[in-house]
Amino acid sequence: MKKNLIALAVFAAFASGSAGADTLLSGFGGDRDFGTRIMQPNDDGSSSALTLPFQINFFGNAYSNYWVNNNGNISFDGPLSRFTPSLFPISDAAMIAPFWADVDTRNQTDNLPVPFMNNVYLANPDSRTVVVTWDTVGYYNQHNDKQNTFQLVLKDQSATSGRSGDFDMEFRYGQLQWTTGDASSGSGGVGGQPAVAGWNAGAVTNSYSLIGSGTQNITGLVHDSNVGTDGVWRFQVRSEELPGSAPYNPILPGNVDDGTAGWVFENIPVGTGTPIWIDPVVATGYDYAVSSGPRVNGVTLLPGVGDGQYDIWLWQDGEWQLFAANAAGGEHIEFGQSVDRFRVTGIETSAEVNPLSPVAFSTGLWFDGVGNATVTQTALTVEISPVPEPATYGMLGAGMAVLAMAARRRRR
C-alpha cells in the first residue's frame, strides 16, 4: 500500500492576552477608515464580481476576479450564499475564509455605539494589497448582542519570488464573540455548527481548516497566532503550492499554550503519496503524537542540521525504546508498524537553530491512510545560556532571558 508522507512545520506562536488594536489594518478612508462599503446591509449576500489588482495562482488555478461574501469569506468561481459552514475540504467552492459563518448585517441600530459598524469594507491601499474587513458584524437573525471583527489581507509576492501568482494571505482578528447563527442550530451566537476558518481549493490536499474550526474554540484565533502577534495568521502560496505542500512553505500551527513547549496541527488533510510540510521550532528533541486520524508508520528528517544524524524512539511496553540510532537526515525510516507517537532526539544545541524561525526543522511524517490527522509536537527542554536574538525578533522575545532547548542524548 502506498504510504502517505506528511511533513510538519511548526512556528512558536508566543500568543497570550487579547489582540491589540493594531491587529487590524486601517487608514483607508471611508466611513470607518477601512475603505469602501462593498455591500448594503444584508443576510447571505455578496458583492458584484471584483477585479484583483494582481493575479493569484491558487493551487494551479489562476484567478483575476473574486466575490466578497457577507458570510465571512471570498470566493473565486462566483458568489457564495451558503451560511452554514463545513470543515474543508469541500468539492464545489474555491474560497478563502477568515471566518465562515452566518453573518447578518441588517440590524444597523442595536448595540452599535458608532455609526456604520456592522458592515463589510474593501480597500486596495496599493497595487499589491487587498484588504477586506468584516467590521463589528452580527449574526443571524439580526442579532448584535455579540459582535465579530476580522480581516482578510491578500498580498502580491510575485516580485519577491519571481513567479507570477505567488501571494500571501493573512487572517486578522480584532474580536470574536460569536460562532453560530440561529439557522445553523445556534442559540445566542453559540452552539450548533460553528464557524470555520481556512481555505479550500477544491481537493483534499489543497485545503486547510485552522485550529478550532467547527468548534466553539474558534474564538481562540483572536488570542493565538502563527507569527507571534495575537490575532494574526499568515500563510504563503508559492509556485501553485499551498502551505504544507513544500518544506519551504510549511503549515504553521497554533501553540498548545498549556505550559508545555508544544504545538498542535489540527485537521491536517492527509492523502497518499503527497507530502504535507509543517515545521517545528527546534529544540534538541521532540515528541510527536497523533491524537486523531491515520497513524504514522515512518519518518523522514531534515538533513544538514548539526551533524545531520538523529536518534528515533518508539513507545513500547510503557516506555521509550531506541528504534534507530544515528539515523541520517533525508532517509525514509520505516517503523515496521503504525504508531500514535514517537520521539526524535540528537539535535545539537551547537547548531543554534533560531527558535523563532518558521522553517527551522521540517519533519516528514509517513501516514498509513487517508483522512484528517491532528498532530501535536512537544519539545524536550532544559535551560541553556541565553542566545542573542536577531533584532528582527526582538519584540517577539521581549522578557525572555533563556531559550527552552532540549537535552541532547549522549552518543556512544
UniProtKB/TrEMBL annotation:
Gene Ontology terms describing biological process: cell-matrix adhesion
Keyword field contains Signal: yes
InterPro entries: Epithelial_Barrier/Signaling, Ice-binding_C, NIDO_dom
This protein's UniProt keywords: Signal
PROSITE patterns xrefs: NIDO
Domain NIDO: from-to ranges: 98-240
Signal peptide region: 1-21
Protein name: PEP-CTERM sorting domain-containing protein
